Amino acid sequence: MISFIWIEDLNGVIGLKNQLPWKLPADQRYFKKTTMGHPIISGSKTYRSYNHPLPGRLNIVLSTSNDRFPEKVVVMKNFSELKKFIDNSPDEEYFVIGGSEVFKQFLPYVDKLYRTIIYGKFNGDTYMPEINYDKFKLISSVDGVIDEKNHFPYKFEVYVNSECD
Ligand SMILES: NC(=O)c1ccc[n+]([C@@H]2O[C@H](COP(=O)([O-])OP(=O)(O)OC[C@H]3O[C@@H](n4cnc5c(N)ncnc54)[C@H](OP(=O)(O)O)[C@@H]3O)[C@@H](O)[C@H]2O)c1
User: Fold this and answer.
1) Is 14 a pocket residue for ligand 1 (Cβ < 6 Å)?
2) Ligand 1 test: best mutation among 46, 109, 131, 152, most atoms within 8 Å of CB?
3) CA atoms lying within 13 Å on the CB side of residue 73
4) Which member of 57, 79, 107, 147 has the lowest number of beta carbons within 10 Å of its beta carbon?
5) Strands, sheet with 112-118, edge to edge from the N-terminal-most edge strand
6) What φ, ψ does residue 139 adopt, rounded to 5°?
């Protein structure tokens, strides 16, 4: 099973200069809690944005380069190699964590979406690829709590692919 998890603003912005354009610690906690114990898949640019394996999860990175990654990181050289790897364990929930280039490739295969919307318009250079939400059913929507560390309004949504019903 393949899931996406990401946060986007009102214009679909997800990144700026290989970082997130905002600080929202509550979403980072949600990301950690949701993905913990599951394999996570990223592109090399997203991996380099934090540049260490995220603990408690198998870190899979797509990269064609010969750059060095820590031993714990599983590097996949192309999409079909990775897809075969995923298809070998259909009961596992694989979380695609970005960025845009990697989300795009997985779009035809995604079963579940964990989308956080941050209600703001930020400068960005990377956008979430367009998703046809007609194919998905919203199963959960929870408003985030605004406090001294989380200044922007935000919402956690979960969708399932209705074609998988
Ligand atoms: N808001 C969010 O939730 C969120 C989540 C994740 C990322 N982001 C942001 O998104 C931005 C990065 O996204 P991005 O689209 O520019 O880059 P990306 O998807 O993270 O990484 C792209 C790189 O991954 C490798 N790659 C991709 N497809 C591959 C394939 N099929 N086979 C082998 N290697 C492949 C290539 O690296 P090589 O050059 O090494 O071959 C490629 O240059 C950053 O700003 C980041 O902060 C935001």
Assistant:
1) yes
2) 46
3) 20
4) 147
5) 74-76, 59-62, 40-43, 94-98, 2-8, 112-118, 154-161, 136-143
6) -110, -10
Query: Domain ranges in the chain?
Result: 2-164
Beta bridge partners of 51: none
Q: State yes or no: pLDDT of 165 exceeds 70.
A: no
Which residue minimizes the CA distance to atom 40 of ligand 1? 63
Atom of ligand 1 nearest to the CA of 14: 1
Query: What pLDDT sits at residue 47?
Result: 98
Is 119 in a helix, a strand, or coil?
coil
pLDDT in tens, 96-141: 999 999 999 999 999 999 999 999 999 999 999 999 999 999 999 9
Pocket of ligand 1 contains residue 12 by CB under 6 Å: no
Assess contact for 14 and 123: CB atoms under 8 A: no
* 63 CA from centroid of ligand 1 (Å): 9
For 3, the enclosing helix (H) or strand (E) is strand 2-8
Return the CATH class of domain 2-164.
alpha beta
Q: What is the pLDDT of residues 26-85, one digit of tens each?
A: 999 999 999 999 999 999 999 999 999 999 999 999 999 988 999 999 999 999 999 999
